[in-house]
Amino acid sequence: MALVALLGGLATSAGADSALQLSADALRKAPAAPSNELSVHAPTPHRLIAADGTALPLRRWGPAPEHEPGPQAIVLGLHGFNDHAGAFAATAAALVPESIAVYAYDQRGFGASASRGHWPGAGALVSDARRALGALQRRYPQRPLIVMGLSMGAAVAMLALHDYPALDLDAAVLVGPAFWGEASMPVYQRLALWTAEQVAPLLSVNNEWIGIEPSDDPAVLRALERDPRWIAAPTVKAIAGVSDLMDRALRRVPGFNGPRTLIQYGTADEVIPPAAVCDLLRALPADAPWRTALYPDGYHMLTRYTQAETVLEDLQRFIVAPGKALPSGSELSPADARDTVCGLAGR
Fold first, then answer.
1. What are the φ and ψ backbone dihedral angles of 189, each rounded to 5 degrees?
2. Which of 64, 192, 236, 342 lies in disulfide reach of 347, CB 3.0 to 4.6 Å?
């Protein structure tokens, strides 16, 4: 009943699209400029309604059709494993001044979704992403639409775009892409994961025990510790699920033929190793419209580490001036990107 009452106070978006339930009160207000917060986790009045009726918390920043002149481009953000839509706050702060609207939702099983902590399956994650992208296309006709995936979100984006011509997007951005195929995982790691999944799939694994830092910014790490929507101890089943998702995404890469895509990866990434990104770059077709920027000493959370401003400036340029060089100078040719990353992996 509480959910019904909540949705009763929401309005469908322009064009009466049932997938986007946006607060009419919020839309009537002039959009506030996003802050430079590392993340936000306050309740949001907006929802993405999935194909099965599941309501997922939805955040939006920037100009909307209700306020002229409206956005010049739209970005849909897909967050990473254990994270939530609030992770795009810093990205929105960089893009909104360029008249770019940013949307992001808590993927099911994460954030404030009703199934938080439960792995939903790759199919559900991909279906939700396709529904969100389709709804934004209808809400903003004749405007460039870009999907931006962080880590796990990059894998979801790749699967959503694969063999789905209805999604005619302008571009994609894959940040710290999680395309870690089983072939590049050490045997002991695969065996341990398989064993744990068989014996104790609901066992939680604390991130601190793993000993991996996603950022070098102490403020970011403190913010994650205090974030009530961040999942600090995912289950073995969820870890196995995201492993399968990454492997599926990597197997789709050889068939990738667009849209134009920017891959951003940091050489100090402790979450996704160079071997995984090496496999990704080797699998990408040579004639596909992809570009790669490598950031020396960049951490996994490239949009939330000490040099994130450089990464976000490149993102701005890629969206607003597609044919221009990235301002950081971090872009490499496809061959050089492969050689560099594969060299880091000892291949």
1. -70, -45
2. 342
- Amino acid of residue 63: P
Identify any residues that bridge with 74 across adjacent strands, giving them in sequence order.
101, 145
Q: What is the rounded distance in angstroms from the CA atom of residue 80 to the CA atom of residue 104?
A: 11
Q: Which tokens belong to 111?
A: 């954030």
Least confident of 33-47, 97-111, 156-170, 257-271: 33-47
The amino acid present at 44, given as its one-letter code, is T
| Residues 159, 241: Cα–Cα separation, whole Å | 14
The answer to whether 206 and 232 have CB atoms below 8 angstroms apart is: yes
If one compares 33 and 19, the residue with the highest pLDDT of the two is: 19
Cα–Cα distances (Å) from 251 to 158, 179, 279, in that order, read: 10, 9, 10
Supply the pLDDT for residue 193: 39
Q: How many domains does the chain have?
A: 1
Give the CATH number of the domain where residue 112 resides.
Answer: 3.40.50.1820
Contact 74/145 with Cβ under 8 angstroms?
yes
pLDDT tens track for 151-208: 999 999 999 999 887 888 999 999 999 998 666 555 435 444 344 445 444 444 455 4
Work out the average pLDDT over 298-310.
Answer: 97
What is the domain extent for residue 335? 2-344
Percent of the chain having pLDDT more than 70? 83
